[in-house]
């Protein structure tokens, strides 16, 4: 059974700082292991698709996914509100009331998407694809209710810190999607429709049984007062989420408008590779990080402890970004056909964007924790306005490089805005480890530039040199000023203790 949840004020029982950091690390490891298992299927599927689909087809599929994410903005905001409001209740009936109310909203959205699936597909096809891909959009829309249902369940598992069950659920979805996509794309030659249909089949196969189990365990009906609270908290997050999703959709649409779907496909490959940082590194951390911020609440001591955990994570994330940038040429040549190889040139810029996104995520979560979600539309709405000017100005002249630079500039602007608003209502900006992050980013930039210049030949020795460059970053990051002396000692002691336990178990 999970640990008891916080009381009515949202404030948990105090834990020593080392236990708080340890809990984040333990759950992060479970999520990380699960993400790696999940991505094995993705890593195997992507090369197959990139050698089967053309750049134009891959670009179209990427746009279809972004359209689906845009349509899910409103229900996703309600689910985020559920995650926050769960911590305002300390009884099972109160917590079940929040979940039951969220499931009630799900039924409303399920009916709406079922009725509007085809009309939305026709309108979207005309606006984005000049009338093409209506069938693919229709099938993707039919999968949206199942996406909402699964998202509710996964969010609830994170709240309850059921990381093992969370991983099992997402792994099942990935494996089913892998098999279905191979069958439809390779076996039946269905192209873009095959990839979309494979994703929907996986959603249905996992969301239906999982949703039945979740709904059966709820002992109360939807609560009107809870519904009002969810709407009040989610209302500002919906336009914010729409603006955030619109950034990615606008990127692909404007690149398509100015340079064609082929360049969208190449950019999508670069984005996919950089996005592995989010999936494999940021994602596992974020699953437990959001819950930890909500648990800490306004307790300053706990908030400082949680912020220090960021430094450990930034060390790993920046090291992973350096590795991704250095090995991008070799990875792209392995997973993609020659028309996609140019993607490797912008992966380092997009990897840096992933780090900026994480910092921004920290401040946005802080605004949600303080229930100051009214600032979020300003952060992401302003980014949309900035995005249109940057993409329109840079893509026609710089092409792929212009799109990557615009992406980095937009997310940097979002970070500045979010940090400014967070400083007005919390101590998140003050307590953030700015100096540690600056050191790690500076060190990572130097290591990447030196490694990319010295080992650009693509030989085995060159790849070995890149690997040593990544190791050098991790060592210098660990012994440098980012971590405090006591943190280094504590981490080494903890690693030694765990290794000792592992050896003892193996001997026993």
Q: If helices are DSSP runs of H or I spanning 4 or more residues, what is the number of helices?
A: 18
Through-space gap between termini:
28 Å
Order of helices and strands: HHHHHHHHHHHHHHHHHH
Helix amount = over 70%
Tell me the strand percentage band: under 5%
Structure write-up:
This protein has 508 residues and is mainly α. It is 84% helix and 0% strand. The chain has 18 helices and no strands. The chain has helices at 17-50, 55-71, 73-85, 92-128, 134-142, 144-159, 163-187, 191-216, 224-259, 261-296, 300-335, 347-369, 376-398, 400-425, 428-431, 434-454, 460-479, 485-507. Helix 1 (17-50) packs parallel to helix 7 (163-187). It starts with 16 loop residues before the first helix and ends with a helix. Residues 1-20 have low confidence and may be disordered.
Keywords:
mainly alpha, 508 residues, single chain
SSE blueprint:
Blueprint: H1 17-50, H2 55-71, H3 73-85, H4 92-128, H5 134-142, H6 144-159, H7 163-187, H8 191-216, H9 224-259, H10 261-296, H11 300-335, H12 347-369, H13 376-398, H14 400-425, H15 428-431, H16 434-454, H17 460-479, H18 485-507
Produce a short descriptive summary.
The chain has 508 residues and is mostly helical.
């Amino acid at each position: 059974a999970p640990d008891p949840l916080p009381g009515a004020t949202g404030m948990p029982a105090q834990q020593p700082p080392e236990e708080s950091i340890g809990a984040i690390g333990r759950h992060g490891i479970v999520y990380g292991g699960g993400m790696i298992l999940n991505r094995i299927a993705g890593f195997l599927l992507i090369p197959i698709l990139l050698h089967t689909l053309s750049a134009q087809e891959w670009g179209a599929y990427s746009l279809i996914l972004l359209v689906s994410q845009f349509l899910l903005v409103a229900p996703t905001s309600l689910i985020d509100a559920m995650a926050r409001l769960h911590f305002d209740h300390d009884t099972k009936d109160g917590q079940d009331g929040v979940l039951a109310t969220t499931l009630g909203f799900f039924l409303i959205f399920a009916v709406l998407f079922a009725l509007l699936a085809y009309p939305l597909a026709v309108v979207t096809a005309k606006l984005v694809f000049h009338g093409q891909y209506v069938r693919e959009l229709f099938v993707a829309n039919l999968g949206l209710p199942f996406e909402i249902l699964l998202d509710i369940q996964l969010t609830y598992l994170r709240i309850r810190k059921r990381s093992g069950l969370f991983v099992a659920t997402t792994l099942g979805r990935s494996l089913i999607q892998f098999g279905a996509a191979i069958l439809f794309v390779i076996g039946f030659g269905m192209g873009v429709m095959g990839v979309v249909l494979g994703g929907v089949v996986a959603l249905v196969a996992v969301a239906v049984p999982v949703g039945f189990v979740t709904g059966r365990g709820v002992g109360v009906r939807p609560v009107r007062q809870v519904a009002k609270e969810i709407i009040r908290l989610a209302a500002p997050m919906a336009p914010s989420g729409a603006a955030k999703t619109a950034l990615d959709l606008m990127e692909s649409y404007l690149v398509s408008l100015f340079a064609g779907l082929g360049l969208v496909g190449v950019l999508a490959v670069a984005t996919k590779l950089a996005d592995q940082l989010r999936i494999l590194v940021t994602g596992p951390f974020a699953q437990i990080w959001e819950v930890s911020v909500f648990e800490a609440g306004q307790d300053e001591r706990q908030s400082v402890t949680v912020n220090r955990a960021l430094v450990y994570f930034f060390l790993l994330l920046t090291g992973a970004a350096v590795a991704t940038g250095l090995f991008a040429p070799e990875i792209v040549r392995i997973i993609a056909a020659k028309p996609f190889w140019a993607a490797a040139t912008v992966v380092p810029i997009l990897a840096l964007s992933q780090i900026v996104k994480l910092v921004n995520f920290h401040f946005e979560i802080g605004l949600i924790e303080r229930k100051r979600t009214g600032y979020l539309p300003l952060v992401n709405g302003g980014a949309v306005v900035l995005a249109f000017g940057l993409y329109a100005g840079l893509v026609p002249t710089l092409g792929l490089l212009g799109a990557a630079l615009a992406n980095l500039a937009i997310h940097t602007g979002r970070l500045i805005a979010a940090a400014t608003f967070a400083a007005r209502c919390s101590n998140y900006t003050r307590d953030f480890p700015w100096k540690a992050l600056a050191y790690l980013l500076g060190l990572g930039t130097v290591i990447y530039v030196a490694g990319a210049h010295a080992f650009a030949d693509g030989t085995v020795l060159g790849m070995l040199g890149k690997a040593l460059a990544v190791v050098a970053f991790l060592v210098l990051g660990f012994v440098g000023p980012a971590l405090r002396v006591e943190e280094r000692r504590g981490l080494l002691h903890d690693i030694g203790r765990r290794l000792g336990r592992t050896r003892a178990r193996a001997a026993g």
